[in-house]
DNA sequence: AATGAATGAGGCTTCATTCAT
DNA sequence: TATGAATGAAGCCTCATTCAT
């Protein structure tokens, strides 16, 4: 964590590099390849995939134009090499048993589960912000991405999340409403927070802990005041 | 409503044309100009602004490529001519007094207000879905759009919505939480519904009335079940 | 003459219009056609023939784009309609007997002839400056113009000027040097003055009468000073 | 000189290439870049800058159209890269001390100076004829060129030439007439010769040495014959 | 006679990709 | 392995010219 913060302060927004370095050791990436990815993320994120020029990426990476195409057959390959693995890591917690890494054991309560989930994914989103931006921008236009997304997220993740949701519904912690709706509500709320936090107002003073608690309270109890709460009549 | 649905079935996703035709009568658009806009919306929405070729737009519109540039000085002009006016109409209800057109009078309750708002904006989003998609995709890359968005939405709309929210907070219909957070929660939930309804699963069988009621219930009372509701302990 | 000066002061550099109006009465030009010529001269002169757009000419002339092509089949036609007649008028004095209009009778002396010639052609060049600029710019690129120029100037004019020059050579007023060289010297000197006067330094204070006398003195006696004059040794 | 003539006969009008090759060795031009310049000079000179198509230049140079833009960002850049350096070399003799390269020492007489100057600049103009043609054609329309011309020629050269002229005026070799007029006379005469020699009648049989002497005689003593020479009366 | 909407060929320029070094 | 010169297809845009009104 401390080294993490240090890295963040050194060059804000490039925290993804630690993840990438981990991969690079496994997959034997050369420094040039890393530089290319780093530059590509920056420029894809800034200008969009279509408007980004490979020549500009090469320049920013400090390599020759041709070098990019030694590592990635096409520009689209480069894009997929960036967002593909991130997509896998994005949904990693869901495909592990018992949400390893998110929860150390089986979640005691739905609230605890949601809280752990938010903390964990906020951290992830912060570290991979630029890549996620590229992913969101390009999913509508890249069938390859859409497919991978559909298979993984709408396939595996939804299945897993549905199971969890229904588990807590049976335990009475969640009201009796169609599971898809419940998932939609929670996902909307969490993503709403992430977008506000990282995209729309990244420079505000955010008290993450407090905001997460408020968002949790909203998801669980809504925003109705005493005047309309049935139980307080 | 019925004619609306008929139109939808005729050519799905081109409902915007009725809005546009209304404008065309006011602003005297020629059939060719309408065809250009129609084609541009389709192609921008499908491939993204940067990846869309003016030659393809011309072909789809059934005009010569040069004709596009008689009406719009540049490709970017064409983009702005599409999303600019839509942006204005997007926020139109917020800048009217008492939400004319959304509510006939001042809203009796926060719930009634939210319900009217959702119905109204869902209708709007449905009619302008492709343009809204273009708008969302391009806002990050087009300073001109960002500016207009910041001025209008973050300027006028937030001010208006804040006032309404605080009005109902004072009346006790909304719990005592920071207004920005409350706005974030409601906006997230509404947009979450719109996206699921129109973008992610447009082909599902949606019972809009019921979904809206459920979303309202979520926003007001949350998803906690009897096991955790404080008052039922 | 007085009206002439008045016109000059009204809008400097458009004196050609009087010549044009004279023609228009003969050739029945409509006001629109005159406006087109006027605009074309301005724009051809400013940006060059190739870089001038017919649309800009139409706009400046206050006519529709198509109207130009009712009077002139092509853009090149328009050019030729401007410079062709001016070319004829440029050499007009040479093809008249006894230089009518330049000299009232046969020239008494070579000096008198040169003086009258300079005064007369300076006046002409001043009135037709923009057209002459177009002519000089385009002669290298327009075979039609080159042909007309070769036929008229190198044909008729040179013949006439040669005759005059040799007439005065026989009378001993001009030294015994090849006639082509003599013509070259005088033409260079006269044109050199015209260019300096009208093109390079049009805003200087010019005393035309004095400058013409000095140029005459140069042509006749050169610039050698007493130290090298043979006769003054 | 002989090799020079040989080159001229091989491909007429491309003598500039020797100058360019000298530069290319210093500035490391590739053969393709030289071919592009060569083709551009030819075509700009033939059709004028505006009417020249980069596609035609590429074809004549034997390269792909895109290659031009690797070396020159824009078509205008290509133009400036051709005429800019030539402009510098055009005035080079004037900015050197004592006219190095034109005169070996300080000029003994005004006549000797003028003779050396004519020989030297005729040689230069012959070698750079096409580029000079482009320069003259485009100066009125290219502010960048006009500026450079004004700064260099009207700035440095005039100053230098004025000094020389006044030097010889003091020595009595030049008559007492305003210096600007004297400069105009000489420049007109020299340029008149160059144009006749290279532009108007390049195919005549020219005896350069004799023509230069005659032109010198004209500049110094004029064309008046014995009948009107004051001193011979 | 005059218009101006429409055309489409052609202009300049960009850029992903290749390949000889 | 890495380079970067070279490519040429494709992109955006201009403009002379036509033609129905």
Automatic annotation (TrEMBL), chains A, B, C, D:
Residue intervals of the HTH tetR-type domain: 30-90
PROSITE patterns named among the record's database cross-references: HTH_TETR_2
Key words, A-Z: DNA-binding
Natural source organism: Paenibacillus borealis
Identification of the protein by name: TetR family transcriptional regulator
DNA-binding region extent: 53-72
Pfam family, one: TetR_N
